[in-house]
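Give me structure tokens for this 271-residue protein.
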Amino acid sequence: MKNIYNPTEAIVEDIIVESPTIKTFVLKPREQFEFRTGQFIELTLPGIGEAPFTPSSDPNIKDKIDVTIMNVGRVTSLLHASSKNISLGLRGPFGLGYPLDKFEGKDILIVGGGVGLAPLRSLLFTLFAQIDKYNKVVLRYGARTPDDIIYKESIPQWAKKKKVDVVTTVDVGSPNWKGNVGLVTTILKDLPIDLKKAVSVVCGPPIMMKFVTLKLLDVGFKPQDIYLSMEKNMSCGLGKCGHCRMGRYYVCKDGPVFTYEQLKDIHDIWD
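Here you go.
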């Protein structure tokens, strides 16, 4: 039986600069690593500490794993300062992930903000691989500025795929930016979806998730059809430390994906 406390060694094969504050680390585990889209891992920097992240890669690829990381704290800043070929520890996967069976035959609206597109990238890869199971995939993504957009080369390619509709926006434009300018909620109008057979998936900064959720309710989504990835609350991954508790739920064990129906009566979910 695998020891969940013992990390698997993984070598950093590549580091991709996505934005001034975000990098994608391409990891090569010592042994094949399996996860379901939406689950998370604990990444260990030896001698320093570990932090939770949701993989951004295709779950069907088992010999490599992508982790897209924003520079926001001690572990992440040291990771950003590191170089290729270093050894990291990998624990997990943890959590339940996205309930893909409940998405089948439906329009799937995916709303991401900033680095919140990282776990959604993994979901998108999964949906693309079996697109005929779903009616359509509608991606709406917002970043602070054009420079802050991640996966800049991939997004236009996603927009060309069958049954996929993509719109992006930035809070603040630039002289060379020709796209939408405004908060991500401004591109949630006139959505090309059938609300009678649609679900939505949201991931991003808490304040963005709050106002996107309110907007989705306003346009007609039911609370049980809004799926939220509560990334920020995770810590030990095992439900032991209590850091991730929200009401009667432990994010690391019962989530990190929840419906708004599950969380709507908990007063501090956006804190």
